[in-house]
Amino acid sequence: MEVRSRDYRERARHIIEDTPDVREAVTAATITFVENRSKAFADLDAEALSRWAEQVKSHALTHLGDYLEEAEARLVERGVHVHWAETASDVHQIFKSIVRENDVQKVVKAKSMLSEELALNPFLESCGVEVFETDLGEYIIQLLGEPPSHIVGPSIHKSLEDTRVLFHERLGTPRDASPERLAAAARDLLRGQFLTADLGVSGGNFLVAETGSIALIENEGNIRLSTSVPRIHVALVGIEKVLPRWTDLPTFLQITSKSATGQPVGTFVSIIQGPGGAAGGEPDGPEEVHVVLVDNGRTRLLADPEVWEALRCVRCGACLNICPVYRQTGGHAYGYVYSGPIGAITNPGLVGLEETWPLPFASTACGACKDVCPVRIPIPDLLHVWRRRAVERGLTSPEEASVLRLWASAATRARLFGWAENLAALVPDWALRRLPMLREWTAGREPPRAAGQTFRERWDEGIE
Amino acid sequence: MRVSLFVTCLGDRFFADAAADAVRLLRSLDVDVDFPPNQTCCGQPAWNAGHVPEALDMATHTAAVFADSDYVVLPSGSCTAMLRHTYPRLLDSPELAERSYELAEFIVDVLKVIEIGRGLEGRQIAYHHGCHALRELGVEQQPVRLLESAGARVVPWEMDQECCGFGGLFSVKTPEVSVAMADRKLDTLPDVQTVVSADGGCLLQLEGRARRRRMPIRFRSLASTLWEARRGST
Amino acid sequence: MSGDARARILGRVREANRDREPVSHPGPLPEAAEPPARFGDPSRADRVGAFEDRLRAAGGEVVRLVDEDEARQWLKEFASGFESASVCAGVPEAFQPAIPAAPPSGAMLGVSAAVGAAAQTGSLLLSSREGRRPQLLPPVHLVWVQAQDVRLTLEEALDTCRQDLPAVLALHSGPSKSADIGQILVTGVHGPGRIVAAIVGGGRER
User: What is the pLDDT of residue A420?
Assistant: First the structure.
C-alpha cells in the first residue's frame, strides 16, 4: 500500500469538512466499541491481566529467534510449508510460485492487515487471479476500491445508507434493502466463491510456538470457510505474532476479543496445526497449508531500543476506538495500513519516519490509549520518541523551531519573558487572523482575551 | 505552611484573575504564598512538540527558580504533570516532582481539606477533566469533591474525560481536527451555564470555540470557582 | 530464496535482541487476573448452567437432555423441521437425525459432535477430524455435547485437546454475525446463523 501519511493534515481536513458523515459514523461506531469493551472488563482485574500479557509478549519478543524456530519445526512436522519473507516482493514471489504450480485462478481472502502492507491483492490480480475479500467490511471496501478505515471494522466509516446505494448499484439489491437483505446478497455471492476458489488467504492473530498453531479470531465465519474449503490455504503471519505456549493462548484469545468488541471471545476461533484432507487423514480441509513468516520492517522496529515495545500489539483496535483524534476522521486520514495511536507509533518504524512523520503529531498525547491497551504499550511515550526524532531530523517546520527557540530564550531570562508577554498583548486583532500559527487558531476559535494586567504585575501591587 | 505559586505562562497572561484567586484561597486556608519572580514557562509546549533541548533549558531554569520552595502549587493540571511526570526524566532528578501539586490536589491531599465553604450552593456545573491531570497525575475526584462539598451539583457529562483538542501546538498545527474535538465536547454538554476546568489551555480552547459558535456558556477556572466557594457569594 | 531470507531475518532478530535485557515468561495467569468463569446468575453453581447462560447470551440456543432416550426423542422432533442434514463423521448413531442426507453445501442442517466445551466463553470445541464442511455450510448447526465434557474455563478445555490436536481445533461460541453494515447486527453472514448446543447427561440442576 502506498504511503500517504505526509498528507495527514490535508486528508483530515477533507474528511471533516467535505464528508462529515464519516466523522459521525466513526464516532458512533467507536463509542459503541468503547462501551462494550468497558462492560467486558468491568468485573475483571484488567491491570493484573495486562501486566501478565505485557510480560508474555515482551518475553516472546526478547526470545523471538528461538520461538520462530520452534514454531517452524512444529509446523514442518505437521506437513506445513513454511516460507520466510523479508519484503512485499518476497511474498509476491512466494505466491507466484504457488499460483503457478497449482494453476490457481481464484482466491478467497480473509481479513489481513499484513496483506495490505504487502499489496497482495493487486499483485495476485496482475497474475490473472481473481481475488474476493470475504469479510463483509473488507468486501464492501473492495467494491469501493478503498483501503480499510479501522483495524477491526474496515468499513466503519460507511453508513447503512452508503451500503444500500453501493449494493443496489453493484449487486442489484433493492434501494431500500434491509441490513439482513444486504448481508444475504453478499453471503450468496461469496458462498459461490468459497466453493470454487482454489486458494484461501488468511492472516494470523497468533502463532503458538509450542504447538505450531495459527490462531484466527472472527465473527462471520469467513475465515473458517477460507481456511477450510479451498484446496490450498496460505497464512500470512508477521513475525511478531508469536506466543510462546499453548497455555498462553486462551487468555490472549479472550483479552483480544474483549478489547476489540467486548465479547468474551470472537464467535469463531480457528486453531490450525496443519493440512486436512488426504494429507491430514481427515474428511476435508486444505491439502496444502503454507505459512509465510513476514518481516517487512518488523526487525527494524525490534532493533529500535526506544520503540520495540510497539511490537507487543495484538491488533485489537482498542486504542483506535478510544482515541478522540481518530474519532474525528477514521483511518483514511493516516495514509497507511495502521491508523490511530498504534499506527502513529508503528508506521514510522515499518516504513520510515520521513514518509510518516506527521502521524506521531496527530495526537494531543491525552493518554487514553495507554489506559486501554491490553499489553500496556506506552503509546504516549513512543509518540514522543518519534516527535523528538522528527524534530532532530529536521522534518518539522523551521518556523516552529524558530518560535520555540525564541520562546526558550525568553523563558530562561525572566525579565525578557515579562517584556515579551506585554508585547504579545499588543498584537492587534487583524494580525491574529493573519500571522502563521495565530491564524490557525482564529480560523475556528475566538482568540484568547488577555486580562488587563499580568499576574506578576498584580502580585507586585499586592493581592488582597 | 508556605508554598510557592507557579502561575504558568498561560496563567500569567490569560488567567491572572484565577491565579490571584488561587492566592486568596490558599491564604484563607492559612497557607503563606510566595511568588519567585524569575518563573516563566515549564517548557511543556516545547516538550510536547518534540523540541527537547528547548524543553530542557526551560526545565533547568524552572527547577532553579523553585529550588528553595517547600511546595510548588500550580493552578494548572498540565503544567503540574510536566513537573511531576516529565521533569524526573528530563532532569534526571525526581526532586522537584516530589514537591509539586495542582491546586485542588494540594488542598485535598496535603492540606486534607474538603469543606472550603458553601459559596456554590445551587450551582449546576459541568467539570472538564484535563487529560494530563487525569491520566498523568491521577487527579480526578479532588476537584469534584471540593465543588460538591461547596454546594455545587457537578452534572453528569458523558464526555467529561475526553480530550478537548488543545494539545498545545496541536491546536494550531492540526486545527481542523482540534476544532472538531472541541465541537464534540460542546455538543455533548449537559444543560449547564458554567463549565469549569483546572487547565488554562483547555479553557482557552473550549471557550474560544464556544464564543465563535455564540454558545451562551460561561467558562471558569477551577481556582476562581473554588475561591467563590470559599468566599461565599451569589 | 526463502532459505536466505530465513537466515537474514533470524540474524536480524537475534542482533536486535543481543544487548537487550531478556524478559522472563510470567508463568500461569495469576488467579486474581483470571476472567470470571461464571456468568449470569451467580447462584447457578454448575458448569453446564454457566455454559448455557454464556452461549445463550451470544445468541446461541441450548437444550439440556437427561440421557440418550430423551435425546432421541428431542432429535426426532427437532429434525422434523428440516428437509435434509449433513452429519459429521463420528456422530453416534443415536444422535443422527432420521432425515434425508445431503452434501454440506445443500443441507439445511449440519450435525456435529463437540470434543469439549468451555463455560467461561460459551464455546463449543470442534475437531476437523469429523469434517469441517457440515460445521460451516448449512444455515443451522446442531452440536452434541456430553455434559461431562463441559469445562469451566477455556484453558481447561484447550488443555484436554493439547496432546492430540487435529488439523484445526475450532471454537464456535455463537451464531455467525457481523455489524459491518452501518453498525447494525445481522446473523448468518457466512457461517451458520443458528447454532444449537444439545447437552446430554449431567442431570438437571436448578
Answer: 80
